[in-house]
Structure formats: C-alpha cells, structure tokens
Write a structure and sequence with these properties.
single chain, 120 residues, alpha+beta, Arc Repressor Mutant, subunit A, 3-stranded antiparallel beta sheet, two-stranded antiparallel ribbon, 5 strands
C-alpha cells in the first residue's frame, strides 16, 4: 500500500518482540533532544566550513577568518556555538588563540558525513 507517496504495510500487524527491543534500547527523551540539538549545529554551512578547516589543522582565529573570507567577529560567533557544543577546543599561545577539533569523535562525524553524501 502507498500513502502519500510512502510505501506502507498492507496489514496493520504489531511485532511486539521487535518493539520491546526498541523500547529497551531507546535513549531518554532528554538525550534524544540533545542529539537533535547537536545535529542542528551541523546544519549551518559556515560552521561546517570552519570544521573542515579544523579537520586539516589547528588554526588561529585570524587564519580562519582569512581562509573563509570572513570577519574575525563572524568567525568568533560561530566558534562560540561550536565550543558550547563541545565540537571545538582552543588554546592560547601568546596573543593568539588557536582552535582545533575537540576530539576524534568530531573528526569521525565529519568524515562519515562526507563519505555518506559522496556515496553513489
């Protein structure tokens, strides 16, 4: 059966053993909300561009601004969001602040996302 262009079951049969497994494994609502919020952060192309620069190297805010042809203020705003969501970290070296990906999880998410969209 097809409803509004989506294939659906012909019979309305509940597969309770499968639902029991799903219900046991389903994270808490707050965890799912936090996951959705994390993915929203990835929904901005400027933040994705920043993450791709940081995927290659640790860089200072000045270099990020130059690489992306943006102002330091605009970059700083996006970095604050990325840092609040634990996707980037920073360190001070003299008068410069260097940013990098927070950990290998972030690197993996970016790499797998790119692999997924480039798949044929």
């Amino acid at each position: 059966m097809i409803i509004k262009g989506i294939e659906c079951c012909d019979d309305h049969e509940i597969h309770q053993p499968l639902l029991d497994i799903v219900n046991e494994q389903m994270p808490e609502e707050e965890t799912l909300y936090n996951l959705a919020e994390l993915f929203k952060v990835f929904g901005d192309s400027t933040r994705i561009r920043i993450l791709f620069v940081l995927f290659e190297s640790e860089v200072c805010v000045c270099d990020l601004a130059q690489a992306l042809n943006m102002t330091q203020s605009a970059i700083s705003h996006q970095l604050r969001i990325l840092k609040q969501n634990k996707l980037v970290k920073n360190r001070r070296e003299g008068k410069s602040i260097f940013y990098s990906l927070a950990d290998d999880h972030v690197r993996t998410m970016i790499a797998q996302g790119l692999d997924h969209i480039l798949e044929e």
